[in-house]
Amino acid sequence: MIEEQGRVVAVESGAVWVETLRKSTCSSCSANAGCGQGLLDKLGVSGRRGHVRALSDLQLRIGDAVVIGVREDLLVRGSLLVYLVPLLGLFAAALLANQLALGEPLVILCGFLGMLVAWCGVRWHSLRTAHDPALQPVVVRALLAGAAAF
Hints:
5-stranded antiparallel beta sheet, single chain, alpha+beta, elongated
């Protein structure tokens, strides 16, 4: 389970909204000088805090420090879905257009259309499974007031 500390900012029935501090690894990355994310981070443009809805059966109040968790397999599956499926759609459509002996501009257009169709499929899948409790972050534990390093 991948865990992250945060602070409860809102309470719902069966869930809480947790504010987490986004940690940047840009200082240790070898591509720091040429990375847009690193540049935005240095300029202070990117937000440093994120809000996550996490399922919880604990009695929590606003301001409580908690640890939320996400299963590793969900993160891997989500990454593959978001990054690999549109890329496969691009290549499949471009290869199909190439096999049909279409011109290069049409092969490129078909590739982009394949990527768009695959992206729409990923979007549809994510909307369909957005409320599945098995795919949601959960509150692993509450931290003592003095133990929170947030």
